[in-house]
Amino acid sequence: MTLKVGNCLEELKTLDDSIADVIYLDPPFFTQKEHQLKTRDNLKEFKFVDKWTSLEEYLNFMDQVIKESNRILKKTGSVFLHCDKSASHHLRILLDKSFGSENFRSEIVWCYKRWSNSKKGLLNSHQTIYFYSKSQDFKFNMFYDSYSPTTNVDQILQERMRAKNGKTQYKRDKNGEIVNIKDKKGVPLSDVWFIPYLNPKAHERSGYPTQKPILLLERIIQLTTNEGDLVLDPFCGSGTTIVTAKMMNRQFIGIDISPDSISLTKQRLKNLVKTKSNLLERGEGDYINKNKKEFSILDSIDAIPVQRNSGIDGFLKAKYLGELIPIKIQREDETIQEALNKLLKSGKSKKYEYMILIRTNHNQQSFHDSFECENDHVLIMNSYDLFIEDWVKLNKLSVSTSFSLQKEQDAISTN
Amino acid sequence: MTLKVGNCLEELKTLDDSIADVIYLDPPFFTQKEHQLKTRDNLKEFKFVDKWTSLEEYLNFMDQVIKESNRILKKTGSVFLHCDKSASHHLRILLDKSFGSENFRSEIVWCYKRWSNSKKGLLNSHQTIYFYSKSQDFKFNMFYDSYSPTTNVDQILQERMRAKNGKTQYKRDKNGEIVNIKDKKGVPLSDVWFIPYLNPKAHERSGYPTQKPILLLERIIQLTTNEGDLVLDPFCGSGTTIVTAKMMNRQFIGIDISPDSISLTKQRLKNLVKTKSNLLERGEGDYINKNKKEFSILDSIDAIPVQRNSGIDGFLKAKYLGELIPIKIQREDETIQEALNKLLKSGKSKKYEYMILIRTNHNQQSFHDSFECENDHVLIMNSYDLFIEDWVKLNKLSVSTSFSLQKEQDAISTN
DNA sequence: TCCAGAGATGAATCCACCC
DNA sequence: GGGGTGGATTCATCTCTGG
Question: Strand C and chain B: which residues 146-165 have CB closer than 7 Å?
Fold first, then answer.
């Protein structure tokens, strides 16, 4: 339970051998920039400098940090080195050297969605965490994820066996019945972690730049330590590791060269704040207000779908009439009039002149009733399905059905 | 359009300087294993050996491959090196050396869900693709994704500006009204690609181990080349790169040391030509884009696409009137009359009573002309796009007052 | 040639407002 | 007043321009 202000290397050298269960290293990434940020109340500015005279200088420093970390770890302990594309390959070579490539455990990818920029090329949206253990005999608490919704339920619930030809098949008992699996824990945790980036508006934000989310550290600490174990963070920064360790009843040592950083950490310890991520808790699906049908309509007219507004479902990609044109698709529980009103309201407050409404049903109206909108800046068109439905209804009145099974099968087999 | 059996390095040396637009390198990953797999019919076994006397031997080989690749690339060209945790860090150092670290573009993470062996530790479920360009002046086709469901519409719609204090806020015009954004493309493609490992279509599987999904190669080729450009794959394997290049109308060179591999590639190419011949022979532009529109129309009316003959493109999944209903989508080069005739002919020979024709353009007709079909067993409906197109044209004609010339010209130029 | 500053950007939270 | 909707805000990236 220690927090120290001081040069990371010197402080590490004062620590005993084989005492730490996990060390989380979150050093400067070799971005060659100065990082700064203000607190939410704008009163205080935190910064740190990540500028080096050369890659060699940086790597020399990091090599020593890694060597010391190895010394301080218990035989069953692990290290997590957080970095990004800037120097990850060089750092891993240092890790191989100090820990041995046989103690490489995982390359963890932390990925997230974040604001975009106008870069030519791909949008960078992940960082890398190298996971090495001090020995083969490392402490590891297995962690299981829930099955993905797309997983075939049969595969979860049925036992499998190997047939004579070496292929796997579902097991049957002597009566030919399928055999259900008794105990399935879920899917072992993947090495790709989707954890939302700490939002600029989140309460969890302390004002320290490059702050990591508590959720990330929770996972690392959970995987490699038990209660009472010792967590060491030599690049303490905003103190996320320390705060998380405290919340999880682990012991901790935090080191940082900046007094500001250590006092911030102390402050956060006194007042433990963890943002609950709505996104993670509710899932992405909770934000989506469209079903597959509506998406596919938008797709087929080359529109960009948007969420979080009941009046607008998307925009035409093409810039007809020199403007973006918003689109709404009538919902099953809306009358066409209600749908139109919502669209007009959204369109008006956003000053849109031209809009498109797609009618998908005749809710509370006979299909004979026509619907006219006096505003000719709104295009109202029937969905294909509605067209077909009406046509079928019209024909049904006059036609009796003839139907051959053979015909149907022919048609399907051409697929 | 060449396929060569031979040692990768020797064959590369026979190629001229500066000819390739993209090179996809999918070498052995230094797994120190022999990989083998049988075809689906169990008749043939493919294998390759990824065993080396030392890391140095492997890296020496790869260094030469990378140097040759650099030489063969055009100045605007790019290389994608596919690898995994086994040697990725060493390989990236070689890339830095040959291409220069300033030409590092992205570390692409290909991640997927995978069935688990529950070893101690995290489940490995990603591979890495390093993307380097030969120069800063590299060819790159931007590619956009949908917005996140949590993004609110105002973000997307309203222009913003920087206030005096440096903070961003929504822009207002001199009347205090919000200013709309004119053009939105979506979110730039991320460097984390989730693409299923085993492709949904199992018959894509050739029996070759470590086969890569077509979707992955499609994306790489799309990002960095245009039609007619040259794609080179020195580790051809099952030939996915070559097959994809062919489908996308790119030129290609494939090299592999194994005659089995090259003959498999040839077979896949022939098969592709056989099944897709209708589309490829028409030779009208990008096969993939062309079909997206038609597929998405069929998808949005819940229809099953069928092998395309000129008369029928799909069938409604729902059996209205107890009958299957065939659908045709008017081609760009057909008049609506021609399209109807083809549909009627196909429908008649197969004795379909009811049919649907979707009109996508006014080929050789003014949009004022209406087209009536006396056969009321055929439903003719306009595509959404056609509706919108007509609406735009109408507005251009009738709305003269509230319509500025600039707007009109924009509309024309987007057409 | 290099640096400073302005501009653009969207995810996800907070929060004001409205029934 | 509370549940839901949608508007406002902030961050760290990259590009571009001018001195």
Answer: 147-148, 150-152, 155-156, 159-162
